[in-house]
Structures
1.
Amino acid sequence: MVTTESRQPLLTVNRNGLYCDAGRFYIDPQRAVARAIITHGHSDHARPGSKAYLSSPSCAPILRERLGKTAPIQTVEFGETVVMNGVSVSLHPAGHILGSAQIRVEYRGEVWVVTGDYKTEADSTCEAFEQVMCDTLVTECTFGLPIYRWPDPSVVTDDINQWWRTNRDRGVTSVLLGYSLGKAQRLIAGLDPSIGPIYCHPAVERMNNLYREQGRLDAETIDLENAAVPSRWSDGIVVTPNVPADSPAFSRLGPTSVAFASGWMAIRSRRRQRGSDRGFVVSDHVDWPSLIEVIKGSGCSRVLATHGYTRQLCRWLNENGTSAAPLEENAERDSKIVTIDEEASA
């Protein structure tokens, strides 16, 4: 580990996103660039149009589904190193969703780690989080407040199944809301198929198939749009990212009970805002205790916080002996947009 105070930052933020000038690449760029390293397949991290992508092997099928079958994607196994213009880069499991990666960047003895989105809880649908040592840690803090502390996942899973079972016995169809990539598959993996059939929104079912192909989802599911009409819809559960009001498939479900699965459900006011009947605390991001544990475990001398309660987290870290600042303060002053052609010619 080295002292980073007097050096030009290894990673900086410009209008394209998080950039490594020495290596001439971006991490999760916000616009099309020449070289993009992708932490995971969610649309706010993986955007179309770049000339070259680097991801983990299990992330690549998700990227092709979302960016197009011909997207120029190179893969590297977790833990293996690739060298870009003298900068060593390796990917390490982030535990967020299938194929999600932390990006380790090393140059002239200095090590940075970009976590991307991550969680440390066990999850059979994706690779387990790996702690990576570094000098500077760029961490998300979506739930970076002490009030966010996740309950035991097994207890939440039992609660979801009991809610479904109760609804079935009442003749009410259970509708469980969760993001189509990652969250939905984690929820499905915990459902008890002995209660009834599992129906999925087409967007969820497309991702289910990608997970099955990689051996990460065993549960049998049915595409809701193509499902034969059962004698009782209420026997089943519907997993969907939303409830489209104009969907014929949803209009035929009869009486429904809608539940939302999210870390935001830890706050009662958020449950009321969502307008759902139930809220289950299920998050694919770290809670406060795990966030602090990862920061301490990294051995870093500095933290740059992004995506969430950045100032609150940084204030707490600085007061407790760890140098920290919001990542945006690491932005290049008067930075310009680096176009694909400019970057490719460098």
2.
Amino acid sequence: MKEEIVRIQRDALARIAQVSDRRGVEDARVAILGKKGELTLAQTGMKDVPREEKPAVGQLLNDARRAITEALDAKLVEVQARADREAVAGVDLTLPARSLPLGGLHPLTIVRDEAIGILRRMGFALADGPEIEDEFHCFDALNTPADHPARNEKDTFYFDSGKLLRTHTSTVQIRSMEKQLPPVRVIAPGSAYRRDEIDATHLSAFNQLEGLYVDTDVSVGDLKGTLEYFLRALFGSDTEVRFRPHFFPFTEPSFEIDVKLKAAGQEPRWVEIAGCGMVDPAVFEAVDRERGLEPGVRACYAGLTGFAFGIGLDRLAMIRWGIRDIRALIENDVRFLAQFQ
């Protein structure tokens, strides 16, 4: 038995020494140490060894297995090192590596995150709502008359089911008031969709940041102060802002907000970036009815005041970086996007 173990070890080490690749190392391991390997089969003969010889034979088996295992491991390292050398043969390892281009955030992502950060510090919470909406949340609850042009299929994307792609993020105002009790102070960034003709300042899919504040004794002064502070925090303390009277079905009084765009090589010009106003009481009454309350009898929102605003994030990016054409924001031209790394 002892002579057999010594022979197996000698032959195994000789075989391993002749191996030249990983496959050969694995074949040798299986042939010698596998379930049906030569040393494994020899170990089964321990039952026939006299009792007094078993310690010595067992020690010899263990020594043989250890020596073979170490030889296999050493050969594997040798084979791998040889393969690595062959893989880089003829390659000048002193050559500098190719530099990888750095990625960066999209300008819309940058301005959205900064705008959210400013408004969050002012006490606004984030809210969200579906982009596929129904007419109640997109129009009815927002005091939009049945014959209003915005409801027309020429202005709004409708589905066969009667659902539609929201034309503004104001729908989140209604859903927020349906879910929570006043006071409400929320912002809702998201996409909106309209059948606008695409040009240098309009897209059919664009990005808005909606805001709503409802409480007792909210005034126009609160509205103007909030938005002026926000815009100057975003663009700088010397930013010129103006409010122009306007009309929206869901706010009264209503305003459009312009910021003066000052870009290198261009004449300064006013750019519309937001609509805002005091929430129309009819909107509060619609929310109360949807909550199962009867305005004038038992109300939750009726009798409160609040303001709302919707800011075009695309326009904010145009003003921030002097972008002449809004279409540059959706074309994914890497030459344009590389400027924001």
